[in-house]
Amino acid sequence: MAIGQLEGHLKLSAKIAAILQEVRSSNATHRRKLKEILALRLSSSPAEFCAAFCEALVPLFNFQRRTSSAERTIKFVSSFACSASDKDDPSDEFLENFLRFLLLAATAASKTARFRACQTVSEIIMRLPDDMEVSDELWDEVIECMKIRAGDKIPTVRTFAIRSLARFANDSENRDILELFLEKLPLEQNGDVRKILVLSLPPSSETLSMIIDCTLDVNESARKAAYCVLASKFPLQSLSIKLRATILQRGLAERSAAVAKECFRMMKDEWLEKCCNGDPIELLKFLDVETYESVGETVMSTLLKAGLVKLQDGQTLREFIAPGGDSAEAGHCSCSIELMDAEVAVFWKVVCRHLNMEAHKKGSDAAMTMGTESTVYAEEASHNNDLLDQILPASVSDYVELVNAHIVAGANYRFVSRQLLLLGTMLDFSDVSNRKVASVFLQVLLHKALDHDLDESGNEVIIGDGFNLGGERNWAAAVAELCKKVHAATGEFEEVVLNVVEELAQPCRERTADWKQWLHCLAVVGLLLENTTSFRHMQGNAIDPTEILHSLLLPGAKHSNLDVQRASVRCLGLFGLLEKKPSEDIGKQLRCSFVKGPSTVSIMAAKALLDLAIWHGPDEMDKSMNCDLSSDIHDDAISSTPFEFGDGREDSKFELLDLLCAGLEHDWDDLEEVEDHQSIQDVLGEGLAKILLLSNKFPGSHTSKHHLILAKLIQLYFSSDNEEFQRLKQCLSVFFEHYPSLSIYHKTCLSKAFMPVMRSLWPGINGNAVGSTMMISNMRKIAVQASRFMLQMIQAPLIAKESTSTEENKSENPSVETCPSLDFESEEEGLAVRIAVEVASFDAKKTAAEKSYVAALCKILVLLQFRVSEQGVIKLMRRILSHASTAAAAEKDLTKELRHMAERLKAIDRNPDEQLSSEQATQILEKLELTFNFDKDDSPEAVPTPAPQSIRPRPTRRRARAHQDSSSDDEGSPTSVVPITPAVTGSRSQRASKTAAMSKMAAKTTVKIDEYDDAGSEDDEDEALAEVTSEDDSEASV
């Protein structure tokens, strides 16, 4: 009987296996084979069929590759598990038994079995009909198992486990599943798993923010999934205006075409068609274009390019002008003008601009082609021009009346007025009468005073920024564009504006103007200086540039009103950009405003000084101030003379970079910090970074200070005291990403900046403050991070042409032995010598801070690689390394790593027995601006064999112990494997990278940088006490 049952089981299993084999080939056979396997299930007992079915399915759980045949089998199995042929079909019992089998496989040790089990479970749950009855206990088991698999180490297992739970996440009873998803999403490393997590999130207020954050995901499929979920699960009305603008701003500017297409599909199908009935103006109303103007313009431009904006008959700007509105008095024609909404104004501005651009483009194409193709382009250009003419007002007078009506309507229509001003650049002003009408209108705009109001105390305050015409930059730009369009002849724009300036400046020169008149006059001057290209166009007019400078700008910078000072300083910066050479008067006043002025004026002065330094060069700025540059050419240190910000003394004797760096380090907490969401440190940090980035354009004496400025920026970037300067840190992160790859000179600056940064960050070194054990540990961690970061920048490949030329030079002269290459100081060899000299400068007896510092330096040192072509540097390094090993003799692990490094250097030394002459060593050290004393016997073999150290007459007890340790190590050294090539050393670089960051801070007077050597030894006793207190922490943190 048992034999008969076994034979029946085998036959049934074989039939099922045959069906599964056939469904692998094509989806077309699934319906027919589903009927066959359903018939087999009806003809057998549920337990017997389930056992045979699972047995036939086992080979699939051992098949790892995701082929189309395996996917078809999974699809068929899941469809069968969810199917029932009739009421008598025991499908529910089979489903429960099969799910228990899958749960058992989901806990298997084999990753393939877990993957196939979770995949099958997810397919079954996705296909399961609502009327299928499964016990609650079994569902609880499934959910708990899949929650465990959601944390599996295999990404594909996690993917299908999360997909299995997605159907239960909408149920309020399964709140723990939603919490699991929200917990996993920000921590998940795999992009495909993040995609499934996003697709599985139900719509709610707490999941919305997570989904929108995923629109910035680094994985393209995850970003695309985020827009797909936003389109399908979140109606337009459920999103706030800010979120709508954020979604469209990110999606339409997406670098991936697939993601941008998904965002466009969401905007078109879900938002425009369903919510706005295809009306783009209605869509703009959902976006608040007055606040998010750029987003509204992007949306309209995208819709126009896609051909989704259809203009109805009679839909033009002329419908806002009543038929009888032809009065010449612009102020009395408001009754004939229908005021438009902000969305309508943006709509027409973008439509007209699009038609104008298309007409120019097609006209250019017609001019560049011939024959029929040229005719087609010309017709398209003519059609766009005709359509534009139909939309714009019929005459310039109508246009002026339309704009004037909105200006008179008050501040609520200021945005619409600005949009209409920009439309004026598309009108034709070739006719004299049109220019005359427009010129009168422009005179009104230029003479219009700044709006002001009363504050709570009854004082008058300006509405707007206070230094742009109309109180906002966009309004001033719109007026300037229209003015340049109307007065397009050479010098005509400058002549018209200077006439207005001369009229407004009269009360200012007579000192009868109040602060509001000063601001109005300076706003018009600023508009002129921003939009002219040369003083040549301003000569011979109502007021010349020199008079503007001495009668308006310089007196305004000394005005009692702070807003007038700020506006004057801004104009001084613009004025200096137009000069061929910077003037002494402007330089002195900007320096004075930066040092003595309040924060708002200091920020504006800092911007002006940095702009002029980048435009003219720091050397030219100092020459204009008659600074004696020759005395500091060889003193490559930033002046340590303290600056007293806010006092009344003159600072013209200081060089500009010294002044700016002093401002970067100054504590501005007692002043108002923010100007346009920028602190003074933000402005100075970004400006100094630009100067470093463009260092090849300033070949002067200041280049010797670039590495010190770079050191200050790195120190600021890693300083925990400046965490609030997130904008500056974001800017510096982009700067550091590109800076080392642009030039060999930049890498040289990085190498020279390494030690100053380490000295400034390491506690207890070079006079740095110390504190509690926890504080010292955190400071050391920051220094280690900085050292690793700088090492990565030095190792970054060059993208400039210099790298190619250097490699070609090296290949042409491979026989160079002891002469260093032209770029060794910018590579790892130069940094290694700097670190080794710093380590060797310490005695064997050190404080706790010095011990940890030297250990950190040595750990970085052993990470650095040497090129075989740099034979001279290799020989020099072997000599210095013998002295460096003495300083680190107390650390056995470090001594061992230094010994291995010495062996590596010896292995790549082509003539290991040949000594480097003193002249050659001095030549290399001079290139690195270092000095080192080679008085002691420094044979290259001193590292593995410390015998030469015994010539010292009376070694201390500590040195004797170090000598014994090194000798005992030497006895076992023959058994160690000496690397043959430098590439073998890469495996030791993980642990040592932490030390390298710390080691660069310890360089003392060996490197000639006065800024970090002035600290002296005044607080040595206090430091020693603090260092002894934190000695144990020192040992642990390293």
From TrEMBL:
Ranges annotated as biased composition (Acidic residues): 1011-1038
Protein keywords: Cell cycle, Cell division, Chromosome, DNA condensation, Mitosis
Region of interest called Disordered, as start-end residue ranges on this chain: 935-1038
Source organism of this protein record: Salvia divinorum (Maria pastora)
Positions with biased composition (Polar residues): 973-990
Gene Ontology biological process terms in this record: cell division; chromosome condensation
Record-level GO cellular component terms: chromosome
Recorded family membership: Belongs to the CND3 (condensin subunit 3) family.
Organism classification: Eukaryota, Viridiplantae, Streptophyta, Embryophyta, Tracheophyta
Protein's name according to its UniProt entry: Condensin complex subunit 3
Composition bias, Low complexity: 992-1006
